[in-house]
Amino acid sequence: MGLQGDQVAVYKADMYVVERERAMDMAPVYPDVYKVINATEGAGNKQTQLLGAGRLKRDTVEGEDINFKSPVNGWTTYTKYDNYNAGLVFSKQAIENTIKLGNMLKDLAKTWTDYVIIAKEETAARAFNHGGDTSGDYVFNGSFLDETDPSGLLLYDSKPLFNLTGNARTTKGGGTYYNSVASLTVTPDNFETLYNLATATNNHGEEDEIKSNKINTALCRPGSDKFKLEKILETTGGLPGGQMNDKNVYYGIVDKIIAWDYIESTAGWFLGRRQDENFCFCERQAQETDFFRDNNNKSYKASVDAQWSLWFKPLAWRAWVRGGGTSVAGGATE
Fold first, then answer.
1. Is there a contact between 85 and 288 (Cβ–Cβ < 8 Å)?
2. What is the spatial distance between Cα 87 and Cα 301, in angstroms, rounded to a whole number?
3. How confident is the model at residue 244 (pLDDT cuts 50, 70, 90)?
4. Structure-derived torsion over alpha carbons of residues 278, 322, 173, 66, reported in degrees to the nearest 10
5. Whole-angstrom distance, CA of residue 197 vs CA of residue 193
6. 202 in Cβ contact with 321 (< 8 Å)
7. pTM, full prediction
8. Angle, nearest 10°, between helix axes 224-234 and 188-196?
9. Fold (topology level) of 5-45+78-323
């Protein structure tokens, strides 16, 4: 004799309660790095940038006519909401012989909630771990249904998210830019190099107009890089590592150091602007846990699924600069 329908419903409800409680126990990092967008429909999304609102022109003669022009399209960016799932099957005999079925299912729900958060962290960190791959990576491919992302595995402009000076990207205004410097370890001088790259070189918009590019965050792996950044940014006395009493001009120049467990050893270290409006994590479907009977073989099944994606909108590359890291011609396509 199998479980009654109301028993299945009770066990399923218990799993939902544990799922919500467990989610409150963990503190993922990705919402602090990305701007989180809640998507409500569709298999993906796309957006086209509008340019050409027009810079102001000084009149050279009295009564000069206004120069009207039509807006111009910029880049189109895409995101595909990927589905993530897992499931377990229990035989009819195993379920009916389990005295504490409710406890077992609650433990299962806890585990899956952990793994949903882990999968989201892995996805979010992947853009940093593989953002320099010259052939791209699947997290940048926004193709969905009949919408094809023309840049494929690369950013919308067919460049890696983190590009070196020899592989500069070109904006719609014709300017060329890079946001990654090879072989830079964490030192005060290298910190200044990256900081200047972000704020004094990449401080331009899509039409190459001056556009402030303030940063507020250092991002790295836990361990030695974090300790070095703390010395650079939090030393109140003399310059870090020196014997002079010169003012530490780096003190407090960014207000947060994020040591992220999911940053790989080959990824490098980063300076940038957390929760930038163009650097997005899309939450399409929250975690859904289910428990039901398969009448084909009288087994019982438990499953979990959720949907999310990354979305890099125009000028997303300005949000972060990278020191060190790799720029290999690799990257997984699936």
1. no
2. 7
3. low
4. 50
5. 6
6. yes
7. 0.88
8. 80
9. phage-related protein like fold (3.90.1690)
